[in-house]
Design goal:
By secondary structure, the chain is an alpha/beta fold. It has 2 domains: 2-174, 3-Layer(aba) Sandwich (Peroxisomal Thiolase, Chain A, domain 1); 176-320, Peroxisomal Thiolase, Chain A, domain 1. Helices cover 32% and strands 26% of the residues. The chain contains 10 helices and 13 strands. It has helices at residues 20-24, 31-38, 52-67, 91-98, 115-129, 152-155, 213-235, 252-261, 273-276, 283-293; strands spanning 2-12, 17-19, 42-44, 76-80, 105-109, 134-142, 160-171, 178-186, 194-196, 209-211, 244-247, 302-309, 313-320. Bound molecules: acetyl coenzyme *A.
Length: 321
């Protein structure tokens, strides 16, 4: 059986670290409120001249280095972002050019915070069924550009960042490694609960992020627990067999409530929301790379990645590293 094997991970963050105390100076909020409701302590914010492709390129280069590959060995780039450099061309093609690639395929996937699990699933499908050999899958966002800094209920929640993985198509990889199952969902009825009220494209306007936090929270726990169960069942795996859950980093309470619903020990859940806040499509690969680099995730470990975001969209991917 052909499977997509993980060869390497990488990530990139802007230098500027903005703490909750820094936000207290510009908003009617407090460190205590933000930590208690979300678990967030800090986020990285990109300087005005930085573009999403700058962070995406760095994360991609680090993933290639970890995989021991040259960029020319990549023939597929799938990039998840809701904050592309421009309306078009796709930011994946900007990264492709900056990596010095003139062949292969590069395109963007847009599923907001679920973008990375969507991109991973698309890349996996193409690697298993198409003529592609090696893929770069990137999640990169400058969500700070969508924030309404007058709205304390959303401004404290988001940050900027990028993460990437390299996958290779292999016949019967040893040790049962590779992507074992994935499941995606969307339900557009819930778009108004989490959206940007304008933006480039057919409306010709500039928009900012709007969210009904409580309702998003309620749907998130139910949808995430359900898609995680569905993905595990598709691979015939029990929750107790999972070594690491790598969740979308939106809110510590969502992450912990979902883990409890599946009876997963909190010690097996990777949490970076305290330092990164919600980086949308970048959050899962950022957390994944952090846990690979600090040695928590080891070769052979079974990892369950999950995310939910605007749309609503949600999904999960199970892979053996
Ligand atoms: N600082 C201080 N007070 C605040 C702040 C703030 N930053 N923001 C809101 N408040 C106030 C509100 O005005 C309200 O005050 P009131 O009672 O006087 O009216 C009070 O705090 C409670 O507000 P709620 O919105 O009801 O607070 P809640 O407990 O629901 O927490 C939060 C809000 C953190 C946004 C929560 O609903 C949440 O995390 N939702 C999930 C949203 C999310 O993570 N979305 C990301 C994208 S989707 C995804 O990734 C899963």
């Amino acid at each position: 059986m052909r499977r997509s094997l993980l060869l390497g991970t990488g990530s990139a963050l802007p230098d500027q670290r903005v703490t909750n105390a820094d936000l207290e100076n510009r908003l009617d909020t407090s460190d205590a409120w933000i930590v208690e409701r979300t678990g967030i302590r800090a986020r990285r914010i990109a300087p005005p001249e930085m573009k999403t492709s700058d962070l995406a390129l760095l994360a991609a280069q680090r993933a290639l280095e970890a995989a021991g590959l040259e960029a020319t060995q990549i023939d597929l780039i799938v990039m998840a972002t809701a904050t592309p450099d421009q309306t078009f061309p796709a930011t994946a093609t900007v990264v492709q050019a900056r990596l010095g690639l003139t062949s292969g395929v590069a395109f963007d996937v847009h599923a907001v915070c679920s973008g990375f699990v969507y991109a991973l699933t698309v890349a996996d499908s193409l690697l298993r069924t198409g003529p592609y050999r090696r893929a770069l899958v990137i999640g990169a966002e400058l969500f700070s550009r969508l924030i309404d800094w007058e709205d304390r209920s959303t401004a404290v929640l988001f940050g900027d960042g990028a993460g990437a993985v390299v996958l290779e198509s292999r016949e019967d990889p040893p040790g049962g490694r590779g992507i074992l199952a994935s499941r995606l969902h969307s339900d557009g009825r819930y778009g108004p609960l989490l959206h940007v009220d304008g933006g480039p494209g057919s409306t010709g306007t500039v928009g900012k992020l709007r969210m009904s936090g409580r309702e998003v929270f309620r749907h998130a726990v139910v949808n995430l627990a359900s898609v995680m169960e569905e993905t595990l069942a598709a691979a015939g795996v029990e929750p107790g067999e999972v070594d690491w859950v790598v969740p979308h980093q939106a809110n510590r309470r969502i992450i912990e409530a979902t883990a409890r619903k599946l009876h997963l020990p909190p010690g097996r859940v990777v949490i970076t929301v305290d330092e990164h806040a919600n980086t949308s499509a970048a959050s899962v690969p950022l957390a994944f790379d952090a846990a690979v680099r600090d040695g928590r995730i080891q070769p052979g470990h079974l990892c369950l990645l999950e995310a939910m975001g605007g749309g609503f969209t949600w999904g999960a991917v199970l892979l053996r590293v």
